[in-house]
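From the pipeline queue, job 12 of 40. The input is one protein chain; the requested action is below.

Action: predict structure.
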Amino acid sequence: MTIQCFTSINLNYLAKARVLAASLRRLHPDWRLSVCVVDRPPRDFPAQILLDSFDDVIWSDDLGIEGLPAWLFKRDVVEACTGVKGPMLHDLIYAGVDKVIYLDPDIAVLGSLAPLIELLDDNSVLLTPHQLTPDEEEEAIIDNEICSLQHGIYNLGFLAVKNDSAGRTFTNWWNRRLLDFCYNEKSRGIFVDQKWCDHVPSMFDGVKILRDPGYNVASWNLSGRKVSIGEHGNILVNGVKLRFFHFTKLGPIGDTMTARYAKGNTEVYEIWSWYRRKVMEYANWTVPSGYWYFNNFDNGQPIPKPVRELYRWRRDLQQAFPNPFQTAGDSFYAWLVSEEPGLLAS
């Protein structure tokens, strides 16, 4: 039986992805781990870092996405790194992998994931909800339950799929939705891949919702999860083993939300402190802060989000300018300068 994990990043997320890789290998050295890099490296980037951490390194150029320049231009970095999850899962399933697990790069595996493989013996798709228990305080209801209504009931920092008929049916659907509609446009009812998966339990067979509090512990569910250390040093959540922790928004936002809901649960702060140290340990200073190769037109001009949004919904512009990054001659950039100069300054 083949078990494959994968994640997706741009190079600014490499340090976090390397922590994920090291934490997974410590517990599951026989599982394969792939990374999809939605980027192109800056000068002097040491590519060996990727090869040392991952079994397979797939660049976005290698995914076979039709009209890739236009596809990337329509998306900001989060939308692009999320959108490739569909084709990555599709390629792995149709390459014959038996069981596939996706993990966000800002996750660390802190307990065995073997129970997931057992659950996939009897189920085809595994999902984790953002919350498992109702909140009581108004602030928590707004932060957590209402936020989930906007961003999706299930957190797609984790997904597991079995290569059977139901798993392939789900994979085909998810791949198409992410290729076509993986955008952060909550006004249209879309939040990258997550809102799509609100449909999954009602549309597909073999779907299992994990209600074990040891999976996908994060700031948005700490109001209902107590982290402790067991007598043998095991990290526990509500008395069961912690499997993985999701360190969303490392920095001021993550600190604020963690402090708001961890409160006096000192073990949570110890885990966050450990994670910060590991990210610093695995940092690569050859990647400039905020770097993403696809941030700019080929003349170096930054691409504002409204320009991407205009292009993504205008079929006429897509047909006229199949590579919108180009600025020479009769280009999308020239069209913008003539027709929508205010968008370039937005």
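Job complete. The CA atoms of residues 15 and 281 lie 8 Å apart.
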